[in-house]
Write a structure and sequence with these properties.
The complex is a heterodimer of chains A (206) and B (292).
Chain A lengths: L1 E5 L2 H7 L4 E6 L5 E2 L2 H13 L3 E7 L5 H10 L1 H6 L2 E5 L2 H11 L4 E3 L1 E5 L29 H4 L26 H11 L19 H4 L1
Chain B lengths: L2 H6 L4 E6 L8 H11 L4 E4 L11 H10 L4 E6 L5 H14 L3 E5 L20 H12 L17 E6 L6 H14 L3 E6 L3 H11 L6 E6 L4 H10 L7 H9 L1 H5 L2 H14 L5 E5 L7 H8 L2
Parallel strand pairs in B: 1-2, 1-8, 2-3, 3-4, 4-5, 5-6, 6-7, 7-8
Helix pairs in contact in B: 4-5, 5-6, 7-11, 8-9, 11-12
Classes of the chains: A alpha/beta (206), B alpha/beta (292).
Bound molecules: iron/sulfur cluster (2 copies).
One iron/sulfur cluster (SF4) binds next to strand 7 and helix 6 of chain A.
């Protein structure tokens, strides 16, 4: 089971400087979603006239479903400066890849609960790190796309764009750099030094 | 002595690297360093380089210090979490070691214990950030240190000839923002690439030492081209190494090549860092030929 928690209001507000299209994923039973908190936050954004549209749906981690639903709302998405996704890390990554070069932000952190784990059958993976970094990395998960789960940039081991650990695997940080370049967000690489917090068990965070 | 003092004075800073042995006898390492490297500014000690288990970097640094050399303590984030890293930094400062080089480290799968747990609790950037905190008298957990805080010349690495050079520059900038004092580079064989890199890197205002490997032969150069990230020996140098095997084996060709690279790059950098890989004995000849 996964838990997604809404990021703090300060963090969310710092991300959303312009108009925004919002996607809520209320899909699967395996993920607990902060519905009430999200609704309150979205109401505030709506009142401020910052929202071009809201899509509340399920299983956005399924690229085919996602594509159909997003294309129906293309005009609203084009009108927005960024897309805010409230889902687990897999959902955000799926949207970010599909909508590149549009900036896509994660509104939630994904935390692991011991026991049954959510089904993540797609090409994207979320390590449930508890502090979603996708907003710094253009929607590519540094925890699962980098062999060392580095959160501050590329190591010196990438050769021909491949990871030092596995020549068949693309270097995650090379992908992140290209994505940030494509979305015009290279300034994200100048964010403060990130230090991971491994104390994400439910007992510690609650 | 902190090597930053020399950069500040505008000196061209020369360092070389020694690798601790896989065992406890280091007399020959110390002797070699004393014989061939005592004329240079500082000696880097690698930290279980290439994820191969060896004698510790910290202990070897202390032995070099006792022998009158100026060590640079390399530490990687591969084998220790933030508690052990900070503890080793305090130990280094207590021994009087004043220079450090902060690296992320190769993955454990590349070494001689591929089943080992890769740690990477911190990385090169957050390690530099942590050292800065220690220097201000607070640890990464926010707790005050007792007594004098440590002070280091804090180095890091960058790979100027990497095929991901944009991502490397971005990482370099993060290291600068985190508080690094100087850089050493991955080995350079292509001065044009290095010079183009320095054109972009000079905006950060930090001294950069050019990384040099003395190529031991065409086979070694080819091996590096195929396996070592960020290192590329161009075809003409390969041909030069292959032309006369005896000359290459004696180190003559390699020293000539390395000296040429240093001469071409010298106006663009603030020092040179030699990774001799067992060929410490050729370092004096290299420096002489390069005119240092
Ligand atoms: S950074 Fe990766 S592992 Fe962490 S919550 Fe986001 S998608 Fe999941
Ligand atoms: S080569 Fe790239 S993916 Fe592999 S560990 Fe280094 S930064 Fe991560």
């Amino acid at each position: 089971m996964l838990i997604t928690e809404l990021k703090s209001k300060e963090v969310l507000e710092s991300l959303l400087t312009g108009k925004v299209f919002i996607i809520n994923c209320h899909g699967c039973k395996e993920v607990s979603f902060p519905e009430k908190e999200a609704e309150e936050f979205e109401k505030e954004l709506l009142a401020a006239g910052k929202v071009t549209g809201i899509l509340t749906t399920d299983y956005i981690c399924n690229p085919e479903n996602l594509q159909v639903r997003l294309e129906r709302r293309r005009a609203m998405i084009d009108e927005a400066d960024a897309v805010l996704v409230l889902s687990c890390g897999v959902g955000v990554q799926t949207v970010a890849e599909y909508l590149t070069p549009k900036p896509v932000f994660a509104g939630c952190d994904t935390v692991r609960l011991p026991g049954f784990q959510g089904v993540t059958p797609q090409e994207f993976d979320c390590g449930q790190c508890g502090e979603c970094y996708l907003n710094y990395t253009g929607g590519i998960c540094p925890i699962t796309a980098c062999s060392k789960s580095l959160v501050n940039g590329q190591c010196g081991g990438s050769k021909n764009g491949k990871c030092e650990v596995d020549p068949n695997m693309e270097c995650g940080w090379e992908r992140i750099y290209r994505r940030l370049e494509a979305t015009g967000r290279l300034d994200m690489l100048k964010c403060p030094t990130q230090v991971r917090n491994f104390a994400t068990d439910a007992e510690v965070t609650k | 002595m902190k090597i930053t003092e020399l950069f500040d004075r505008g000196e061209f800073v020369v360092s070389a690297e020694v690798g601790p042995p896989k065992g406890i006898n280091i007399d020959h390492v110390i002797e070699e360093a004393k014989t061939y490297l005592s004329g240079i500014t500082a000696v880097n000690v690698t930290d279980n380089q290439s994820s191969v288990m060896r004698l510790g970097s910290l202990a070897t640094c202390k032995a070099l210090l006792d022998a009158g050399l100026n060590p640079i303590f390399q530490l990687t984030c591969r084998d220790r979490n933030r508690i052990a890293l900070q503890s080793d930094l305090l130990s280094a400062a207590m021994f009087g070691i004043e220079n450090i080089l902060c690296l992320t480290g190769d993955h454990t799968k590349l070494g001689d214990h591929p089943g080992a747990k890769p740690v990477f609790d911190l990385d090169s950037v957050s390690l530099i950030h942590t050292v800065k905190l220690l220097e201000s008298g607070v640890d990464l957990g926010g707790n005050a240190l007792v007594g004098d805080p440590p002070k280091f010349a804090k180095g890091a690495v960058v790979s100027p000839c990497s095929d991901s050079v944009d991502a490397q520059l971005a990482k370099m900038e993060r290291k600068v923002l985190a508080g690094v004092d100087y850089f050493q580079t991955q080995a350079v064989f292509e001065p044009e690439k290095f010079i183009a890199f320095m054109e972009k890197a000079k905006q950060f205002g930090k001294p950069v030492q050019l990384g040099i490997i003395i190529p031991k032969g065409a086979a070694m150069a080819r091996y590096m081209n195929n396996n070592v990230a960020g290192v590329h020996v161009p075809d003409d140098m390969l041909a030069e190494l292959a032309a006369d095997k005896e000359r290459a084996k004696a180190g003559i060709t390699g020293v000539e090549i390395a000296a040429r690279v240093i001469k071409a790059c010298r106006p663009y950098c603030q020092g040179v860092h030699i990774m001799a890989l067992g060929w410490e004995k050729h370092v004096p000849a290299l420096l002489e030929q390069a005119g240092i």
